[in-house]
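Example record for the data management plan.
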Amino acid sequence: MNWILLIAAAYVCIVLAVCLRILYDTVSTSKTFAYLLITILLPVVGMLIYFAVGANYRKNKLYSKKIISDDKLLQEIRRKIAVESEKSWDTGEPEVKSHKKLARLLLNDNSPLSGNNEVKLLLNGENKFPEVIEALKAAKHHIHIEYYIFENDTIGNQIKDILIQKAAEGVKVRFIYDDFGSRDIRKTLVPQLVAGGVEAYPFYKILFIALSNRTNYRNHRKIIVVDGCTGFVGGINVSDRYINHPANGNPVFWRDTHVRINGPGVYYLQYLFICDWNFCSGKNLKIEDNFFCNTKSKKGHSIVQIAASGPDSDIPTIMFSQMEAIGMAEEEILITSPYFIPGESMLDAINMACLSGVKIKLLVPGESDSAIVNAAARSYYGSIMDCGAEIYLYKKGFVHAKTIVADGKLAIIGSANMDHRSFELNFEVNSMIYDNKIAGELRDAFYNDLKDAVIIDPKTWKKRTLFKQLPEKIARLLSPLL
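Corresponding structural encoding:
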């Protein structure tokens, strides 16, 4: 009996110590509450979950190193892009004028406002990958590529072979893969790439996935930069599942969106890649003129800004930029998000816009690839429908696109989901395109997707039984951890 009491007392002391660490270590109130909840209610298991995915091991050391490495690079790039930003700001294009606050927000976060870009909207992998392959084959100086998921399948091997071929031709190829999202290529494609002359490094290497909190702070970006002039960014990873050809035999239709940028809008994508490269490789990549497109040649008419954030950011730039875009809208906001767990701040921004008369339509998966994420997302639907928003469930397959269209003038396309993980834990990147034509194309794509979706009836939604709502209420408590 004495031993049982001693063990119980020791356990209580350990729980109290872990709770104190959570209180001191976690900034977000909602996350603090969630970690305290699982630590107290799930004996032992709750603490294991916290130490596996919640504790900020080496975070300060890791990202302070990255920030220090970026400082000189940032000054060098600022010098190259300052003139271009001022030119774009002074043009007085209507799309920029109507979103001046958003553009200024990103300028204050060092993201240039760049004009004269040619932008092409790429819907789904079957449209993205031919463009990527064409650009990679045309590379003359360098290829910079980083992905969250890069798989050992048909398209993954096709791109791998092209990278090796270009390296053999003398093109400098640098490849970053997330060590968690692309863990399956560590012992397959990566050794082949390195043997073929490609420089390849993992982002934030994981030694023991099951026990490591490094499953947080992942690089969720999808970036390609070719010769400093051509860039790709969006939500489509390198995987056969994104290609909806009958020959692939995919059981699920994947609906996703990417964008190709030609022109100085690629500058900040290049900067982000070099920052990540310096961190992953432990080297300081020497800046070359060929890393940046010649601004004298006019590529197109689109004005582009890049929004990027991560655990090393001073402010949650992507969340702020999305909230600003929603807050500035006067007529319509169209949101597509596969994982809609917006948190209270974003939820308030959406509800305020609705109550101000802005028409808001939200497209989400009919069924998510995660039951608990799907339940947490559903817990937010009632609030925004009460304010007048319309919610559509995509039924054709799985919608994985992360896009926003504001008033048919601004298009946001990137890697960031509308959830806690993208806003706080992952390294993400979004493109902000001030162009009526591109925004119009994305708006048309949204309404085309609605043909394969069903609207949620608010009255029916309210009549659901309390028993049916219970899993959603529970999942919402854990939403900061998802």
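Summary line stored alongside the record: The first helix runs from residue 2 to 25.
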